[in-house]
Write a sequence for this structure.
């Protein structure tokens, strides 16, 4: 039996590559109004995913379209809970109208990174997911507090690694403000993915090797070389014997 790996991509964000990227991935994280997206883009992205048999998930963020959800913010737990629930339910309603079911939730941008290190925020996000549907998979940074909070709540989780981002020694992503944050060389991106999937390790910006679990690999959809990177990563993984397949969510518990 071939080993499996999920390839996910953030889509419905207006980057213009969705039609080319969707056939290359197994899971799509769909912007649902916080940092990008509206009913029309959500519906179009859902339909595109349905054509290609791609699992769909909500990609909620801080309500910050000006900075594309990449600016760190603070808010009350009630506000965060409400924003996340609203975004998930908006996409869920549109998916149901298309005869589709959401498989997962993956926070976007600053919300994702803050929840990775802030247990309180992570727990609020998990409460929001639980309030909507406890069978949804929570996708978050490998080894993060978001993953820990999801497990503690009894949810199914996916630990995520990145093809085009560099890591720090603590397993966090190098901040986007750093000139070393993004991997722009295709061969380096492919090499990082293969190392993570085959050995469970990655080389940090400091030159050290750290261990990270990897259930899913993120391919960003808004980069200049997004399609080329996605094709190269997919080809390398299938060439190494991996089946590209989404994680199936468990049956609803009663």
């Amino acid at each position: 039996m071939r080993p499996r790996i999920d390839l996910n991509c953030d889509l419905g964000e207006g980057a213009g590559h969705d039609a080319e990227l969707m056939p290359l991935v197994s899971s799509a994280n769909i912007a649902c109004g916080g940092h990008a997206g509206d009913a029309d883009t959500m519906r179009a992205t859902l339909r595109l995913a349905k054509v290609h048999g791609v699992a769909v998930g909500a990609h909620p963020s801080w309500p910050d379209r000006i900075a594309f959800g990449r600016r760190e913010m603070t808010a009350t737990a009630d506000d965060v809970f409400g924003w996340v629930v609203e975004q998930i339910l908006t996409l869920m309603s549109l998916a149901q109208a298309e005869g589709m079911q959401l498989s997962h939730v993956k926070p976007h941008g600053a919300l994702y990174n803050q929840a990775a290190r802030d247990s309180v925020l992570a727990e609020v996000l998990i409460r929001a997911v639980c309030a909507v549907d406890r069978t949804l998979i929570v996708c978050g940074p490998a080894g993060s507090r978001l993953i820990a909070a999801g497990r503690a709540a009894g949810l199914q989780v996916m630990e995520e690694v990145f093809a085009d981002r560099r890591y720090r020694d603590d397993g966090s992503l190098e901040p986007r403000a750093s000139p070393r944050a993004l991997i722009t060389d295709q061969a380096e991106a492919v090499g990082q993915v293969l190392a993570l999937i085959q050995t469970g390790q990655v080389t940090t910006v400091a030159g050290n090797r750290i261990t990270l679990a990897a259930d899913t690999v993120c391919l960003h959809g808004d980069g200049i070389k997004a399609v080329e990177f996605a094709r190269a990563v997919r080809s390398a993984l299938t060439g190494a014997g991996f089946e590209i397949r989404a994680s199936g969510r468990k049956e609803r518990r009663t």
